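Data deposition worksheet. Section B asks for the primary sequence of the deposited chain exactly as it was used as input, without tags or linkers unless they were present during the calculation. Section C holds the resulting structure in token form. Section D is free text for depositor observations; keep each observation to a single sentence. Incomplete worksheets are returned to the depositor.
Section A, Depositor: J.P.
Section B:
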Amino acid sequence: MPNPNKVTERLFQSPSKYIQGPYAIQNAAKYLSKLGKSPLLICDDIVWNIAGQSLVTALENSQFRVYRAVFGGEASREEIDRLSLLGKDNQADFVIALGGGKTIDTAKTVADGLAVQVAVIPTTASTDAPCSALSVLYRPSGEFHCYTFFHQNPNVVLVDTTVISRAPPRFLAAGMGDAIATNVEARRCMNSTNFGGGLQTEVSSAICQKCEEILFKYGKQAYEANKAHAVTPALEAVVEANTLLSGLGFESGGLAAAHAIHNGMTAIEELHKLLHGEKVAFGTICQLVLDGVETSELDRYIEFMLSVDLPVNFEQLGISHVTDEKLREVAELACAEGETIWNLDRVINVDFVFGAIKAADAAGRDYIQRTGWRKNL
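Section C:
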């Protein structure tokens, strides 16, 4: 039920500082120096080779003492406990998250447990995790576990668009899949409390709308620029939409059905290979169906998703033979107590959500058939 405690205060929250631009990592010391001098750097081996060594060089040239901890791959309690112990043993005075969404969510949780500040340096624009005061945690097997919340947002978010431009375009597209849900969900959460425990401010709503506007305006162009590893105004705009606007928008605007259905979809093992935003994109179609939007409006979102190679039906998700029994399990998990789907100001039950999931698949297939859409290889 929306706003069961009848909260009337409006609330907006954000990271203390957000920096974005080409080669921004080279200036990391300038922005991180106030956080401490002995950071625990959390990143995996792939990211270390892409950006980790250059980051450490830039910091050590400014008299930082960096201890690197290798991220194991899953944002789980077990991984958080392991990394937290390394941080204690090495007397880290702040934490740096370098990598994608799961690395970032892990590092934020580690920093909170150590009671130190955190700097987030995303190497892809694939999620809206960098700016938020929460993390999504998973079980070691990959199923959704829980949200965990912090008293403050990251202290510094530093986005190097040169690094982002060199990442596979699939990550940018997944970020757009996550971000396209921002306004769709927030506009149905006007009477619900956000992740800070308050109602939306006017600026929250404006940010959500601007996020969507940028995606429709520049998304395809940015996707093509990413394929060419080119930093362009379109790429910069979409990176900001995926990272800052979506992050501020979902946290201070609110989540609803799209993310709840994503969480339910983690119960399908075949979907574990997909990125977060790829599943959220399909969850967004499900929510649009639940919202009862006109076909022309639904088509507009499906067309956008297909333009950046996001999945819009079961076949594209890789679950063409999924059973009704499994889909009902997804619906049941999406409707679990405390899930964000209950922020919707409408009647919801498992049958409605199960039907919306099947109808979303049908809408995606219908659009492709009607338009003759073919993926550009």
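Section D:
The chain is about 50% helix and 10% strand.
The chain has a mean pLDDT of 95.
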